[in-house]
């Protein structure tokens, strides 16, 4: 490693504080391969290269910054730089900035990954963790592991009609080579993702940090409701087949069905009427559903119940409705041995389960994976109000360095 003055996590996040701000929604909108996300990727590459790390982008667009000459069975840490629309400053970037700061901290301690019998260390940045552009969350890690079919990924379309293959090609990633990448996967001996906590778990526990226990099973579905597009002024109320009316009933069903099912969480956060005019009865409405529950069979039952109610609502309105599954991730427990190691290296850190999905969760079935959560004083995430105290952000880098040093 070369000598670069150490940066704190707060300083590093300050360097990107103006990238991808969303004046309309508030917070940040940094969809994968947008100007903002590309600027962040360049920022990460420059920061890693200043630290003397060897940077390369793999066939799926995952960035790797290497510290040490060996590749296989390395210790890997990282997160993502893309965001949801109007997201916070920390979901993703906290883990990336903490990884860079932890490299500085390891250097300050005289710890040399890849030397003195230690494994190499790599920092990674995964593309499209949020699925906010192409609909499927953790697309980079799903491609890496082969959890998603490469053709399915290539053909995903964003709201402007660009395919993931086109966007990849435009950004230097040859779409022909997207997909399961056994070589890169073999580089990961253990994977650690540090992440802002996205709920109020750590506030309640009174701890700045937790070790992740599991990730709640979750999936995404799309309802397509078709009706009769028509004129808002000339069409009598009795003559309407209005898919927006069906959509409204689906939103209420989602709330009612999930509220009646212990531990279920279900959300409609995105709805798209076509053509979408104030004085136009829509001809079609697309509505996206996010459902989560620890028991995957219960998730399926919740979705089926909502689907049944949607069909009744559609029939009553003279509309039709179809439901398609876009992605499904089962409940995933993190490696028990690695969890125990992390708790040994971070004395007093409680275990906290995650309601949010992460690339670490996609990797978990394939290799030993662990996560660290950092306290969020608002308990709010996927929102501009997401927060981390400066003191906790800088503590996070030290804690990550402790963990990396202990595992190397
Ligand atoms: C990603 O952040 C998710 O859990 O939806
Ligand atoms: Mn995240
Ligand atoms: Mn997120
Ligand atoms: Mn996530």
Automatic annotation (TrEMBL):
Coiled coil regions in record: none
Record-listed Zn(2+) 2 binding positions: 91, 130, 382
Species in which this protein is naturally found: Psychromicrobium silvestre
Family matches, as PANTHER family: ALLANTOATE AMIDOHYDROLASE, ALLANTOATE DEIMINASE-RELATED
UniProt GO molecular function: hydrolase activity, acting on carbon-nitrogen (but not peptide) bonds, in linear amidines; metal ion binding; N-carbamoyl-L-amino-acid hydrolase activity
InterPro entries found in the cross-reference section: Amidase_Cbmase, Bact_exopeptidase_dim_dom, Peptidase_M20
Source lineage: Bacteria, Bacillati, Actinomycetota, Actinomycetes, Micrococcales
Name of protein: N-carbamoyl-L-amino-acid hydrolase
SUPFAM superfamilies on file: Bacterial exopeptidase dimerisation domain, Zn-dependent exopeptidases
Residues where Zn(2+) 1 binds: 80, 91, 195
NCBIfam families tied to this protein: hydantase, PRK09290.1-4
Pfam families per UniProt: Peptidase_M20
């Amino acid at each position: 490693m070369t000598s670069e003055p150490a940066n704190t996590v707060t300083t590093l996040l300050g360097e990107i504080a103006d990238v991808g701000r969303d004046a309309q929604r508030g917070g940040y909108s940094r969809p994968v391969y947008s100007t903002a996300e590309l600027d962040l990727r360049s920022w990460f590459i420059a920061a890693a290269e200043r630290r003397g790390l060897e940077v390369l982008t793999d066939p799926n667009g995952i960035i790797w910054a290497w510290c040490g000459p060996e590749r296989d069975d390395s210790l890997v840490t990282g997160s993502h730089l893309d965001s949801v629309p109007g997201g916070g400053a920390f979901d993703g970037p906290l883990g990336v900035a903490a990884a860079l700061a932890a490299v500085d901290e390891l250097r300050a301690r005289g710890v040399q990954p890849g030397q003195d019998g230690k494994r190499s260390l790599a920092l990674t940045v995964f593309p499209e963790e949020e699925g906010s552009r192409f609909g499927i969350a953790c697309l980079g890690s799903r491609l890496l592991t082969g959890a998603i079919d490469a053709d399915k990924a290539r053909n995903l379309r964003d709201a402007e009609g660009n395919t993931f293959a086109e966007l990849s090609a435009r950004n230097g990633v040859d779409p022909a080579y997207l997909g399961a990448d056994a070589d890169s996967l073999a580089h990961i001996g253990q994977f650690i993702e540090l992440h802002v906590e996205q709920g109020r778990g750590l506030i309640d526990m009174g701890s700045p940090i937790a070790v992740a226990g599991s990730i709640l099973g979750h999936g995404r579905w799309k309802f397509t409701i078709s009706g009769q597009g028509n004129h808002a002024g000339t069409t009598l109320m009795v003559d309407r087949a209005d898919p927006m009316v069906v959509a409204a009933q689906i939103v209420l069903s989602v709330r009612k069905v999930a509220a009646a099912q212990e531990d279920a969480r279900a959300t409609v956060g995105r709805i798209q009427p076509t053509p979408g005019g104030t004085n136009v009865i829509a001809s079609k409405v697309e509505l996206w559903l996010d459902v989560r529950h620890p028991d995957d069979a219960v998730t399926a039952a919740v979705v089926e119940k909502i689907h049944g109610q949607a069909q009744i609502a559609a029939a009553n309105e003279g509309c039709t409705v179809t439901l398609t599954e876009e992605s499904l991730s089962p409940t995933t427990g993190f490696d028990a041995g690695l969890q125990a190691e992390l708790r040994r290296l971070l004395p007093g850190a409680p275990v906290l389960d995650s309601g949010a999905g992460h690339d670490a969760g996609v990797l978990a079935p394939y290799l030993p994976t662990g996560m660290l959560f950092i306290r969020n004083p608002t308990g709010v995430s996927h929102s501009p109000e997401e927060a981390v105290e400066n003191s906790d952000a800088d503590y996070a880098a030290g804690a990550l360095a402790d963990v990396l040093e202990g595992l190397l």
